[in-house]
Write a structure and sequence with these properties.
One of its GO terms (cellular component) is membrane. By secondary structure, the protein is mainly alpha-helical. The chain is built from nine helices and no strands.
Amino acid sequence: MHRGKGMKFVGDSRIPAERKPNIPKDYSEYPGKTEAFWPNFLLKEWLVGAVFLIGFLVLTVVHAPPLERMADPTDTGYIPLPDWYFLFLYQLLKYEFAAGNFTVVGAMIMPGIAFGALLLAPFLDSGPERRPYRRPIAVGMMILAVGAATYLTWESVATHDWEAAAKQGEIKKEAEIDTSAEEYKIYQEQTCISCHGDNMQGGAAGPSLVDNGLSPEEIAKIAVEGKGNMPKGVFKGSDEELEKLSKYLSEVKSK
């Protein structure tokens, strides 16, 4: 028997005879239509992302975020302000058709419709065209969304009382308060805590009582006759309680 007689060799066309480097296909026949995902498209995405990331990091270094005082649940006059990326929703809830009895409309229904429409945009306009004027539905919905968010954000910034907000969030001097003292019990019973805070640090409705520089007589007079936002006759206790509280508040010092 001769070598190789009766034997057949079968080749698989899926296996190349020569190993070639991983070179992307030539898309020159389709200019402007598509490109190789790796490395062309992915490299562009990385470069754009890097530019925005570096810009964001520079802004955080140049403009440090403002710090406010610690949250005080007893300060009922404080008006919170959301972060900038929620300002458009904050402004939307100021309008009559989205506030009050219609809060659910502004907080859930309208944003739900808007974001739902953006999610459906690829399915409503699934054409292969990449030029904006050839995709009117998707482009129109995006312009409407960006325009509405930009306008509402601008309105929120323009109409917000920044001076009052700065006073609300101002870091106050703190004092070591003995909450078990008799005078502090009087302070609580006379509802002083609702305007001046549980640590007497003050709030939007009342000033800080720490280092107030007032004499007991001056404090007693203000408690009876009122001053500024404090109306007359707020103090309802006895003369003895007023004397104790006035002396106590005149001695409140910062740490």
